[in-house]
Amino acid sequence: MHRLRTCAARLRPLTASQAAQTVGPQRPITITSTGGTRTFQPIRCYTAPVASEPFLNGTSSNYVEEMYFAWLENPKSVHKSWDVFFRNANAGAPPGAAYQSPLALSAVPQLSSLVAAQPNVEKLVEDHLAVQSLIRAYQVMGHHNAQLDPLGISCVNFDDAPVNTGFQDVDMDVFKERLRILTVGGFYGLDESDLDKVFRLPTTTFIGGSESALPLKEIIRRLEMAYCQHIGVEFMFINDLEQCQWIRQKFETPGVMQFTLEEKRTLLARMVRSTRFEEFLQKKWSAEKRFGLEGCESLIPALKTIIDKSSENGVENVIMGMPHRGRLNVLANVIRKELEQIFCQFDSKLEAADEGSGDVKYHLGMYHRRINRVTDRNITLSLMANPSHLEAVDPVVQGKTKAEQFYCGDNDGNRVMSILLHGDAAFAGQGIVYETFHLSDLPSYTTHGTIHVVANNQIGFTTDPRMARSSPYPTDVARVVNAPIFHVNADDPEAVIYVCKVAAEWRATFHKDVVVDLVCYRRMGHNEMDEPMFTQPLMYKQIKKQKPVLQKYAEKLIAEGAVSRQEYEEEIAKYDKICEEAYNRSKDEKILHIKHWLDSPWPGFFTLDGQPKSMSCPSTGLTEENLNHIGVVASSVPVEDFTIHGGLSRILKSRAEMVRNRTVDWALGEYMAFGSLLKEGIHIRLSGQDVERGTFSHRHHVLHDQNVDKRTCIPMNHLSPDQAPYTVCNSSLSEYGVLGFELGFAMASPNALILWEAQFGDFHNTAQCIIDQFICPGQAKWVRQNGIVLLLPHGMEGMGPEHSSARPERFLQMCNDDPDVMPPLSEDFAVRQLYDCNWIVVNCSNPGNYFHVLRRQILLPYRKPLIVFTPKSLLRHPEARSSFDEMLPGTHFQRLIPEEGMAAERPEEVKRLIFCTGKVYYELTKERKTRGMDGTVAIARIEQLSPFPFDQVKAESDRFANADLVWCQEEHKNQGYYDYVKPRIRTTTQRAKPVWYAGRDPAAAPATGNKKAHLVELRRFLDTAFNLDAFKDQQ
Ligand SMILES: Cc1ncc(C[n+]2csc(CCOP(=O)(O)OP(=O)(O)O)c2C)c(N)n1
């Protein structure tokens, strides 16, 4: 079989794309229509294919392949000219020499015995090849000629002589013109005289239905019907024959787009709801922004069809993400949020309940479980809350979907799925779309197929597509993952719901992404207050003439007799009444509750009022036995006949040694935290670039058999039979996408520890949007807690401006604790303070404290994001170790590690108290020792930077009452922690003492690229830190 494929492949001519030699820029083309003049970029045009045989071209390959397979089975089953050709090719004839025309055959003595020519066979073969090519041309390029634009002013083919589309009676001139466009100039030798000839249909088409041969005229008509009406199917780039065949069957089979009366009436009713909802809002709140759906009303039946069909296929949970456009309509008519809850969002007089700062109405999320009326099955629908930042929610939806699949054991995505909606400009422009697509087929990130729906209103705010993208369609990004793209004219609701059905079936069949491109228009401006005529005057003149789609569809059904005018009007009146009644009820609402807009409830985690069940955190320590057990697993290979790398054996041995000595290094401390939580039934997922081994080769959570390819072992999953599963996964090289994904994963359940590790801390800035828009303010905007953990390697180690700083200043600047107010101290101060903060920022100086903070993350009675600045050189620093004693029952995370050395013995004699955080502590203690200042300088480590340990900092400065106060950091003065800690330390002393600075000078870059300069800077700030006169002249 393999040989057969290779041989066929050798015979196959190059495809157009393989043969492409130049992709030359072309002049933009101007199209004039009744609606005005628009200019478009031309599509990329490839040069003519280079065939390996003179008569072969890119589109005849399937035919030749079929012939070849038939010949292999029985050489007599094909025409003799093919027989000769295949024999010669198999005998190794070079390209161009294998084919012998019948005349030449007789002239070549050594082949003369093989065949004798038949006069018209060559023409017959050529004509069949031409028909085959024609069919293929429609399959490949037909979408360029489909009538996709409801306004009729755009033409994706960008040709200045657009052909009439949808012709049914074949006019040879039109046909030639069509072929010229479809085949980039080729005409295949077919002529008018061929139109009535009957041709056998290849197996790569379904236009014949039950017939295997058709007259050319009918072939063309059927191809036109399948590919050049209101649906443009873009799929021939998919490199899977079965998938291509599946799509061909769905769109080519005659009569495939039939709807029952019932379906048409349901569709009309859905169009009524979609249209009248916007009209109702416009009538009641004409001066309010709502980003209405006018011009793309068929989005609502589109989504409902996808959901119905998916529910029919067994899906029980649909997670959706979408931008502003039509969001309220989707909430009302797809998710079925109570209308009064939506309407009261428009009431500016309503007071907000004090649950956070809230968000505008077209960003809020929603969760709803209900019965799907079409399938009569339960379905849970959620729309994720999102920020204004377009497409940022995409990976979040995927992560949440993956988590829901994980928790219900849905390994193939049969029960849980995601739908992502996009605007055309954002889909083409935002890189996160690409990052999200690239997660779609990765084992630890796949959600087994997402259905993407693009509300392609052919404009982005004020920008035309020709300025918004360099690709013909806004959807081209989907081609990278071989997702089929169904373009559809949104003014044809039946075509829309047909492609949506096919999209849902595609997902259910292949578990891969698919795109529905709803080509529509935007009746109003970008929002209802906006004037579109400033920038798109001709387009909007056309839009003003455009009959609304509901009206068009209703007239069609009335003309067909599917509904009467009276029934249609009753349907409208019925929905208007529903809206009016809800509007009246909405006036009874007195308070706006954001919690009504929760997209991810955590049943059972909070009290019924949504409060934490306690305000305390138990000890995060473990028994000696438990520590030992996890330590043993961490230093062993729990499967038999598994050969690990020699270097790793040494690492495991040294771990075993540490366990015997009752100590942990960084990696082992992390192991203890993860292992114990897993044993307590908490799922752990650690994701990021190269996290399995660890960027710094310290972790080694996945062992690789050195003798068997791809054989791996995760010891953490061998802890105990009833443990929770551990997922550790190397991610794609993405920060924005992967962090968004993990954030979404963490939303699904509070009973899991989800960690994202940046390769180096500074790389988090390519995911800044997820941090700024979701992690930092998520709870305040959407009353939604999240316990995600960010591990950000950080430290000035002479590695240059990059790879050094995780930018602590940025995280700290976004903390919501007040620098100037000393919070009231109480017994549960530490837990309360954590409850009130927007996120927790820590820099642990030893593995024991890291262990505790990870465990605390789960043992707290609520969830907050945790930002951990993690070390690099400390991973192997001999002093950065912790004893089991610091991790036993009764021990806790230390927010501040006070001075415990010689200075603590006579605190009154201490002249200086240095506060610091993280790795610089080790540099300070070394320097202090060298200078013999252990008794005069105290050093306290602030391990939890935010919320700031006001109480413990105060206790420490009170203890060393005669000392001056210094903040020492290795970062530059305008970076790091200084600006954050200084006012807070001053608050603890009631501003009685100044807080001096010892650290690097202000700088633009986070670190120098020069190792020597790095060391000089270090020396300088250490000198300052220990020079007791350093600040005298500043006093
Ligand atoms: C990341 C980001 N950049 C810019 C904006 C500002 N903005 C809001 S809507 C919009 C146009 C979006 O166009 P499109 O994606 O086609 O959706 P439409 O509004 O046309 O439905 C822009 C630029 C934004 N919200 N997000």
TrEMBL record:
<keyword id="KW-0560">Oxidoreductase</keyword>
<dbReference type="InterPro" id="IPR029061">
    <property type="entry name" value="THDP-binding"/>
</dbReference>
<dbReference type="InterPro" id="IPR032106">
    <property type="entry name" value="2-oxogl_dehyd_N"/>
</dbReference>
<dbReference type="GO" id="GO:0005634">
    <property type="term" value="C:nucleus"/>
</dbReference>
<keyword id="KW-0786">Thiamine pyrophosphate</keyword>
<dbReference type="InterPro" id="IPR001017">
    <property type="entry name" value="DH_E1"/>
</dbReference>
<dbReference type="Pfam" id="PF16870">
    <property type="entry name" value="OxoGdeHyase_C"/>
</dbReference>
<keyword id="KW-0539">Nucleus</keyword>
<keyword id="KW-0479">Metal-binding</keyword>
<keyword id="KW-1017">Isopeptide bond</keyword>
<dbReference type="InterPro" id="IPR042179">
    <property type="entry name" value="KGD_C_sf"/>
</dbReference>
<keyword id="KW-0106">Calcium</keyword>
<dbReference type="GO" id="GO:0045252">
    <property type="term" value="C:oxoglutarate dehydrogenase complex"/>
</dbReference>
<dbReference type="GO" id="GO:0006099">
    <property type="term" value="P:tricarboxylic acid cycle"/>
</dbReference>
<dbReference type="InterPro" id="IPR005475">
    <property type="entry name" value="Transketolase-like_Pyr-bd"/>
</dbReference>
<keyword id="KW-0460">Magnesium</keyword>
<comment type="similarity">
    <text>Belongs to the alpha-ketoglutarate dehydrogenase family.</text>
</comment>
<dbReference type="GO" id="GO:0005739">
    <property type="term" value="C:mitochondrion"/>
</dbReference>
<keyword id="KW-0496">Mitochondrion</keyword>
<protein>
    <recommendedName>
        <fullName>2-oxoglutarate dehydrogenase complex component E1</fullName>
        <ecNumber>1.2.4.2</ecNumber>
    </recommendedName>
</protein>
<dbReference type="GO" id="GO:0046872">
    <property type="term" value="F:metal ion binding"/>
</dbReference>
<dbReference type="InterPro" id="IPR011603">
    <property type="entry name" value="2oxoglutarate_DH_E1"/>
</dbReference>
<dbReference type="Pfam" id="PF02779">
    <property type="entry name" value="Transket_pyr"/>
</dbReference>
<dbReference type="InterPro" id="IPR031717">
    <property type="entry name" value="ODO-1/KGD_C"/>
</dbReference>
<dbReference type="Pfam" id="PF00676">
    <property type="entry name" value="E1_dh"/>
</dbReference>
<dbReference type="Pfam" id="PF16078">
    <property type="entry name" value="2-oxogl_dehyd_N"/>
</dbReference>
<dbReference type="GO" id="GO:0006096">
    <property type="term" value="P:glycolytic process"/>
</dbReference>
<feature type="domain" description="Transketolase-like pyrimidine-binding">
    <location>
        <begin position="664"/>
        <end position="877"/>
    </location>
</feature>
<keyword id="KW-0832">Ubl conjugation</keyword>
<dbReference type="GO" id="GO:0030976">
    <property type="term" value="F:thiamine pyrophosphate binding"/>
</dbReference>
<keyword id="KW-0324">Glycolysis</keyword>
<keyword id="KW-0809">Transit peptide</keyword>
<dbReference type="GO" id="GO:0004591">
    <property type="term" value="F:oxoglutarate dehydrogenase (succinyl-transferring) activity"/>
</dbReference>
